[in-house]
Structures are given as C-alpha cells and as structure tokens.
Amino acid sequence: MTDPHRLDGQVAIITGAAQGIGKGIALVLAEAGAKIVIGDLQDASGTVDEIQAAGGRSVSMLMDTSKPDDDRSLVDLAVSEYGRLDILVNNAAIDAPSGNVWDLPDEDWERTISVNLSGVFYCSRAALVPMLKAGSGVIVNMSSVSARFATKGMSPAYNASKAGVLGLTAAFAEQVTEKGVRVNAVMPALIESRDFGWSPEERARQIQPYPMGPGTPRDIGEAILYLVSPAARWVSGTTLPITGGVQRGSSVF
Ligand SMILES: NC(=O)c1ccc[n+]([C@@H]2O[C@H](COP(=O)([O-])OP(=O)(O)OC[C@H]3O[C@@H](n4cnc5c(N)ncnc54)[C@H](O)[C@@H]3O)[C@@H](O)[C@H]2O)c1
Predict the structure, then answer these.
(1) Catalytic residue chosen out of the listed positions 82, 122, 158, 210
(2) Global pTM?
(3) In which band, very low, low, confident or very high, does the pLDDT at 252 lie, cut at 50, 70 and 90?
(4) In the CATH hierarchy, which fold is given to the domain comprising 11-242?
C-alpha cells in the first residue's frame, strides 16, 4: 500500500523558503519525496543545496510574491523544470514594523497588505492554472494566530493581512475544492524562526506561556506535510491553529 504521508513524484512550490519557517517546510516536504521549487526575495541556494545534499531535488528563483508576473514565472519554473505542480505553500510574508493604528505610515500598511495578502492571492491564482488543468492540487496558506488576536504595539497591518489570508482560504476553497484542489491555512503562534533580537529576559517573557517552549520551523513543516499529503484527502477549507498548547484566553492571545 502507498504510504499516504509520502509525496514521491510530486512538485511543491514554497515561497519565502530561503530561511525560517519556509526553509523548515521545504526540508520536510523534500524528505517526504517532493521536488521543491522556491521563490524568495533573497537567494535561497542554501536551502536548495541542503535538499540536494540529502538526495532531493530543488531549484529556486529570486522573485517578489507581490508582483503577479513574478508569481507566474515561479509557476512556469516548476512546470518547465519538473513537468507539473501539485503543491503551493504561500509562506512568504513580512513583519510590518510595530506601530499603532493612529500613526501607521501609509507605506507600511500598503507594503504589508501587498506582500502578505495580495501575494497569496496572486501566487494562488497563478498556481491554479496548472492545478485546475490537472484537476488536482493542494494549497496551504500561512496565516497566524495574529489573524484573530492582536497584541499591543504589533502592526495592525500584520493582523489585517493574516485575517485576510483566512478569508482568501475560505473563498478559494469554496470555488476550487469541487474541481480537485484542496485549500487550507495554518495559524502558528510563536515560532523561533530566527534571532528576534530579544534580550534573555525578553525571550523568557515571550516564551513563558508556552508549555512545550516555542515552536520550530520543522514543527510547522510537519503539520503542513499532513495537510498537503494524501492523508488529508478529505480536508479542505479549514484552518489549523498550531500553538504548542497555548490556548485562547492565555496571556499571549
Ligand atoms: N515566526 C513566527 O513566530 C510566525 C508566527 C506565525 C506566522 N508566521 C508566518 O510564517 C511565515 C514565515 O515566517 P518566518 O518567521 O519564517 O519569517 P522570515 O522573515 O524569517 O522569512 C520570510 C521569508 O520570506 C521572504 N520574503 C519576504 N517577502 C517576500 C516577497 N515579497 N516575495 C518573496 N519572498 C519574500 C524573505 O526573504 C524570507 O526568506 C510568514 O508568513 C509569517 O507571517 C510566523
């Protein structure tokens, strides 16, 4: 029997996989057998090299998810390089500078919505061309617990963009699930994807509510592996919070 958690022969695009959570997702999906296509604003050859050193296959290109032509080029790269597209993980996003709603600069608002929300729309729209033609595919959108719970000082543009991603997920799923494409979202809480520049005291304060400590990029990669795999064949239009046991009403959200 075929292992429903394997992705052998499948091709996955992951945006923003030069570092952080995206890199974790890329490594996990590659280990499961997928060929990985990365689009990032910065050079992702480190992730590509790691996948290839482990025996997998991967390519990357420099692109900006907020530019529709770049998203089409990324999809074209997957199809020209590997002949198909099965999976899209819309991971790329920016952390808007902290700010209050009453003085958030226009450019911070516009860039955050443009990358974190429009980028997800443009890239999904481009990926749906080969997916709808094939009558199969899976899209996973990276939201955040910030879609539902705000933190004082965090940019409202970030909260709004991640809430918008949930709306897009619902809308896309409603329109394409019956055509063979599943669409879901994940909402992670704190993932130590990079050095956040916290002092030891600040880090201790940030991670204090987490009964299992903060999450890692691989924790998110493993959850996404489930959602994109045949094991989740009856899962579409849903959102998975991944919070390490922290629940609503705690001091974090
Ligand atoms: N780290 C967390 O605690 C956390 C929690 C919840 C959700 N998230 C979400 O997870 C995702 C990854 O977060 P991370 O912490 O790994 O971030 P990160 O900043 O470490 O990595 C983001 C990657 O996306 C790329 N990128 C940014 N803008 C891009 C664009 N316009 N086009 C192409 N690539 C672009 C960056 O170059 C980078 O490689 C984001 O969507 C983020 O909002 C993170």
Answers:
(1) 158
(2) 0.98
(3) low
(4) Rossmann fold (3.40.50)
